[in-house]
Amino acid sequence: MNIKDLLVLSCFILIHSAGITQEKAAYKIYTSAGATTDYTDMAEKAGRADVIFFGELHDNPIGHWLQFELTKDLFAIHGEHLKIGAEMFEADNQLILNEYLLGLISESRFESEARLWPNYQTDYKPILEFARANNLSFIATNIPRRYASVVASNGFDGLKDLSKKALTYIAPLPVAYDPELEGYKSMLNMGHGMGDNENFPKAQAIKDATMAHFISDNMKKKDVMLHLNGAYHSQNFEGIVWYLTKENKRTSILTIHTVLQDDINELNEDYKNSADFILVVPTSMTKTY
User: What is the SS3 string spanning the chain?
Assistant: First the structure.
């Protein structure tokens, strides 16, 4: 046995002795109750829902990859009836988004003017380009950030001074608001830099209400929508889900929630019942930005 072979054998023995024998899984999927399941089961059940919320961690590559895979699989089921909606696009950008989808403006013009997120190229562009290639509607569902900032500073009353045109980019006023929802209650201690503490969850609520409004407003009979949003906007069936359910109780909804865990081989108790499916990714996973 030569020196090279001895070195390889020595490394193998060291790894074995350290107990490093387990495969490195990139993710695991669990049901709401914490039972292990798989992507196929999740995709099949998503294919039977009217609206699918994929709650992402914005910088997580596994979540973005599975969003793209789910987009393709839902298209295989629903064809032209599939629509994509996204928090990452603000409602006043719907015109330029449509112009790009229809091929009326160039890619460079769209990308320079559409106020795209910093991780658009790696995380959202593949899905938008899939929609463009297959003539699918892509809906900008989020409230323009400047109007959410108005709520953060002045509450819902601050929106009353906006023009009629500006109000078309927001859920119809007045919006329902339940400060006792757990998601909003937990935000009361996170209001740093967002105006009055009491208004911080209201700024989140106006985003949720607006996204629910544009989801509902853009769906016709037989349509199905895959909605991409930060995990916080749909976890525990609150946020956008709460507003959409109030608007249309007959809508069939499925939620996917993304979390990080050091050990992904068992779902943390805190995450059970947070969604229909929970995507668990190792804490050590690389980030897209």
Answer: CCHHHHHHHHHHHHHHHCCCCCCCCCCEEEECCCCEECHHHHHHHHCCCCEEEEEECCCCHHHHHHHHHHHHHHHHHHHHHEEEEEEEEEHHHHHHHHHHHCCCCCHHHHHHHCCCCCCHHHHHHHHHHHHHHCCCEEEEEECCHHHHHHHHHHCHHHHHHCCHHHHCCCCCCCCCCCCCCHHHHHHCCCCCCCCCHHHHHHHHHHHHHHHHHHHHHCCCCCCEEEEEEEHHHCHHHCCHHHHHHHHCCCCCEEEEEEEEECCCCCCCHHHCCCCCEEEEEECCCCCCC
Between CA 241 and CA 214 the distance in angstroms is 13
What domains can be seen in the chain, in order of their start residue? 25-282 (3.40.50.11550)
pLDDT by residue (tens digit) across 86-99?
999 999 999 999 99
pTM: 0.91
pLDDT at 213 over 90: yes
**pLDDT computed for residue 6 by the predictor:** 46
Predicted pLDDT at 147 = 98
Q: What is the dihedral of CA 281, 283, 285, 286, to 10 degrees?
A: 130
Closest by CA position to 286, among listed 69, 123, 54, 42: 123
